[in-house]
Recover the amino acids of this structure.
C-alpha cells in the first residue's frame, strides 16, 4: 500500500472521502452482520483469523502472513464462503473430496454427508482504508504553502479501496485504488505537466495463481504473480514496497535520492513472473517488467512524468531467499535485484508538449541483500530486519544531455529496523529504524536547485514509531468489518540531502489514525 | 502485442491454470482441496509442521478428530490454541473434522530432529522407564514403544521439540485438552530439565 503519494487537507476532497467512508461502512453493515479484524478486514473475513495471525505491526508479516501471500491470498477458514466460484465451491465439496480420498486409502466406509456448520455466503473481499494524520515539522514548510498552513497540518493521507482475497481456489488478488491529490508545490507550480496529475490512481496490485505439488522428497509451492510494483509481491518486509515506515506524511521532508527499485516505477510498470517455495524454506522468483505506455499510465491515474522515463525492453527482477525456521524462530537471508534500461523523457515539464523519450537509455543495476530474524514469544513478537541496496548507474543518456555530471555513479541505501509488538493481537508496536543513503557526488543530479548540498545524495537518520490498536483480539465494533490503529512517528535526520547543516529542520512528528473497513 | 493485450492474456492464463491444475491434482493425488490448504497454510505444505505449528502428518486420526472437536468447542485452551485454532475450527463440523483427520493420518510423517542430542539418552530413559521416585509413569505404557500412539493417544515420535516442550509444560499450567485426559496428573510432576530431555528424545524418533 502506497502511503507516500497522496495527502490532502480537510477540504472538499477530504469531506468527500469521509462521506465515502461512512457510506461504505453503512453498505458493509447492510451486506452482512458483525462477527470476530485483520489489517485488511476482507482477509479476516476470508480466513476467520485475527490480525495478529498474519501481522506483527501492520503491514509487517508473520511467518503465517507470508504463507498466506505465498499461497495466493486464497486460504479460507472463516465464517464466509471463500470464493464465489472455482474448482471447489466451498467446504462441502472439499470435504466430499477428502472422504473419497480417505475411503480409497483405507478401503472402507460409505461416505456420510458433510456437516460443516455455520458457514455464511460469499461476500466480495472489498476493503477500504483511510489515514488521517497530524504533521509537525521542526521548521515550517517553505512558502508558498497553500492550501496548507506553514506547519501543524491535519491531513487525510490517503484513502484507498482494495480487493483483497480469493477469486478462485487458486487465484487471489491484492489490488488497491487510491485517492490522490496534488501536493502544495505541484498544485501551485502551474507547469504544463500538471495536467497529468490525478486524484484517483491504481495503486499496489498483485494478482496471483498458486498451487502445491510434491516432487520426490520436495514439497513445492509454485505460482505466478502479475503485479505493478517491483517487490510488491515479496514476502518479507525488508524489500522496498512493504518496508517500514508504512505510513508517511507527505508534508514531512524525505531524502531526495533513492535507488530506482525503491518505488520509482511503482504503478508505472507491470510485470509477470513465476515463483516457488521449496520445502517451506527456499524461495525463488523471476519476474519481467515493462512500463505502461504514456497514455495507459495516464488512463490509470498515474502521472507518467513521475517516473524517470520508460523502459527499453523488459526489466528483469530476481529474488532468492532462504528461510530456515525452528519452533518460534524464523531467519531469512536473501538477495534480490533488477536491471532497468530507462529511456529518459525528452521534456518532463511538458513545456515542449512532447511525451517522447530519448533514443538512448540509462542503465540502472540494483542489487539488494536482506535479512530478517523473527521470534514469536508467548504474547509478543520480536523482528529484526536489514536491507542493503547498491545501485550501479550507467548514465548513457543523462550524461550526454547534462542531466548528470558523471557517466556513472553509485548509490547505496541501508535500513536497519527493529520491531517489538506485544499484547493481544499485537495491539502495541514499537519500531525503530536507522537509515542511510550515500553515493557518488554529482553536480547535476544533486544540485542546489534540486534541494541538495555539496553535490551529494547523502542522508542519514533515525525513525521511531509507537502504534496502538485500540480494538485487539477481534473486539473492534463490527469486527471483522472494521479496525483502527493509532501511530506516533518521529523522524530525526543526522544528514539531509548532502549536509548536516540544518538537517534537523526536517525532523518530523507524524501522529496518525489508520482506519480499515 | 500491447500491454493491455498481454495483461488480458496473463489473466486468461491464470484462469486456465486455475481451472486445470486443481482438478488434475485432486484426481492424481486425491488430496489438494481448499480445506486442506486451510490447514497446511500454517502446518506446512505437506503437514510436517511449520514454525510453532505442529506436524499433522501421520498423527492418529482419532486424536486429530478429538482435538479438532476440542478446539471447535473451545475446550482446548492454551494460548496458541486460542490465538489460532479456535477461529480455524469455528465452522468445522464433526464429519469434516473426521475427514481431515483421516486424510492427515495417511501422510507419512518425517521427524523434526530438532532436539538436543546430548539429552536424548536421558529422555529415552524417562520415556521407557518413567521416574519411579517421583511417581512419574513411563510414557511408553500408553504412547507405545516407538511413541507411535494408538487410537486417541497421540503419536509423539518426531514432533518438534518446541511443540512437545510447550505441551508438556502446559499440563502443569492448568490448560485443558480434552475432558478426562490423564495428562495433567501424569505430567505435572515433570521438572523442566526432564521435559527438555523428553522433548529432545522424542523429536528424533522416526
Amino acid at each position: 500500500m502506497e502511503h507516500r503519494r497522496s495527502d490532502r487537507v480537510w477540504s472538499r476532497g477530504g469531506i468527500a472521502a469521509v462521506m465515502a467512508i461512512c457510506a461504505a461502512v453503512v453498505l458493509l453493515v447492510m451486506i452482512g452482520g458483525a462477527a470476530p479484524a485483520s489489517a485488511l478486514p476482507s482477509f479476516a473475513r476470508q480466513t476467520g483469523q485475527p490480525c495478529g495471525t498474519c501481522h506483527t505491526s501492520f503491514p509487517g508479516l508473520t511467518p503465517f502472513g507470508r504463507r498466506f501471500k505465498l499461497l495466493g491470498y486464497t486460504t479460507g477458514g472463516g465464517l464466509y464462503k471463500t470464493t464465489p466460484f472455482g474448482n471447489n465451491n466451498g467446504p462441502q465439496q472439499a470435504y466430499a473430496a477428502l472422504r473419497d480420498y480417505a475411503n480409497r486409502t483405507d478401503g472402507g466406509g460409505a461416505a456420510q454427508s458433510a456437516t460443516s456448520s455455520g458457514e455464511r455466503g460469499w461476500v466480495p473481499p472489498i476493503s477500504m482504508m483511510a489515514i488521517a494524520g497530524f504533521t509537525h515539522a521542526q521548521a515550517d514548510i517553505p512558502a508558498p504553502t497553500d492550501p496548507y498552513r506553514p506547519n501543524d497540518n491535519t491531513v487525510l493521507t490517503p484513502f484507498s479501496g482494495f480487493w483483497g482475497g480469493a477469486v478462485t481456489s487458486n487465484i487471489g488478488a491484492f489490488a488497491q485504488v487510491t485517492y490522490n491529490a496534488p501536493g502544495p508545490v505541484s498544485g501551485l507550480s502551474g507547469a504544463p505537466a500538471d495536467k497529468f496529475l490525478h486524484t484517483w490512481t491504481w495503486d499496489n496490485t498483485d494478482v496471483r495463481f498458486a498451487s502445491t505439488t510434491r516432487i520426490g522428497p520436495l514439497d513445492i509451492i509454485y505460482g505466478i504473480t502479475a503485479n505493478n510494483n517491483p517487490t510488491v509481491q515479496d514476502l518479507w518486509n525488508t524489500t522496498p514496497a512493504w518496508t517500514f515506515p508504512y505510513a508517511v506524511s507527505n508534508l514531512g521532508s524525505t531524502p531526495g535520492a533513492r535507488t530506482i527499485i525503491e518505488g520509482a516505477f511503482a504503478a508505472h510498470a507491470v510485470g509477470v513472473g513465476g515463483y516457488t517455495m521449496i520445502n517451506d524454506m527456499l524461495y525463488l522468483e523471476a519476474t519481467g517488467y515493462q512500463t505502461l505506455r504514456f497514455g495507459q499510465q495516464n488512463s490509470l491515474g498515474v502521472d507518467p512524468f513521475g517516473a524517470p522515463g520508460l523502459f527499453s525492453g523488459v526489466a528483469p527482477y530476481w529474488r532468492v531467499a532462504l528461510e530456515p525456521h525452528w519452533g518460534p524462530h524464523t531467519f531469512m537471508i536473501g538477495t534480490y535485484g533488477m536491471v532497468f534500461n530507462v529511456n529518459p523523457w525528452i521534456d518532463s515539464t511538458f513545456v515542449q508538449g512532447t511525451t517522447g523519450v530519448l533514443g538512448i537509455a540509462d542503465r540502472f543495476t540494483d542489487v539488494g541483500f536482506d535479512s530478517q530474524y523473527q521470534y514469536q514469544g508467548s504474547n509478543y513478537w520480536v523482528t529484526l530486519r536489514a536491507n542493503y541496496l547498491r545501485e550501479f548507474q550507467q548514465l548513457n543518456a543523462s550524461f550526454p544531455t547534462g542531466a548528470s555530471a558523471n557517466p556513472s555513479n553509485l548509490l547505496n541505501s541501508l535500513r536497519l529496523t527493529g520491531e517489538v509488538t506485544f499484547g493481544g493481537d499485537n495491539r502495541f508496536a514499537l519500531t525503530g529504524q536507522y537509515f542511510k543513503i550515500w553515493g557518488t557526488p554529482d553536480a547535476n543530479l544533486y544540485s542546489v536547485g534540486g534541494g541538495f548540498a555539496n553535490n551529494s545524495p547523502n542522508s542519514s537518520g533515525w525513525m521511531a514509531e509507537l502504534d496502538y490498536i485500540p480494538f485487539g483480539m477481534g473486539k473492534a465494533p463490527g469486527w471483522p468489518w472494521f479496525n483502527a490503529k493509532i501511530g506516533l512517528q518521529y523522524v530525526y535526520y543526522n544528514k539531509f540531502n548532502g549536509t548536516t547543516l540544518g538537517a534537523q529542520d526536517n525532523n518530523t512528528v507524524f501522529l496518525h489514525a489508520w482506519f480499515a473497513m | 502485442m500491447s500491454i493491455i493485450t498481454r495483461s488480458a492474456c496473463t489473466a486468461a492464463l491464470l484462469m486456465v491454470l486455475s481451472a486445470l491444475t486443481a482438478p488434475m491434482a485432486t484426481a492424481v493425488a486425491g488430496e489438494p482441496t481448499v480445506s486442506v490448504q486451510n490447514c497446511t497454510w500454517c502446518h506446512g505444505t505437506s503437514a510436517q509442521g511449520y514454525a510453532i505449528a505442529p506436524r499433522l502428518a501421520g498423527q492418529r486420526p482419532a486424536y486429530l478428530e478429538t482435538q479438532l472437536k476440542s478446539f471447535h468447542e473451545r475446550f482446548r485452551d492454551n494460548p496458541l490454541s486460542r490465538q489460532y485454532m479456535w477461529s480455524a475450527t469455528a465452522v468445522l463440523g464433526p464429519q469434516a473434522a473426521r475427514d481431515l483427520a483421516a486424510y492427515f493420518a495417511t501422510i507419512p510423517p518425517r521427524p523434526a530432529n530438532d532436539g538436543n542430542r546430548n539429552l536424548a539418552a536421558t529422555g529415552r530413559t524417562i520415556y521407557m522407564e518413567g521416574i519411579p521416585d517421583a511417581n512419574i509413569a513411563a510414557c511408553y505404557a500408553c504412547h507405545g514403544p516407538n511413541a507411535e500412539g494408538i487410537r486417541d493417544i497421540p503419536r509423539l515420535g518426531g514432533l518438534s521439540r518446541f511443540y512437545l516442550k510447550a505441551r508438556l509444560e502446559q499440563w502443569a499450567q492448568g490448560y485443558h485438552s480434552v475432558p478426562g485426559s490423564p495428562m495433567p496428573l501424569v505430567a505435572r510432576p515433570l521438572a523442566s530439565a526432564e521435559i527438555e530431555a523428553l522433548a529432545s528424545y522424542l523429536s528424533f524418533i522416526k
Observations:
- Residues 231 and 239 of chain A are 6 Å apart (CA to CA).
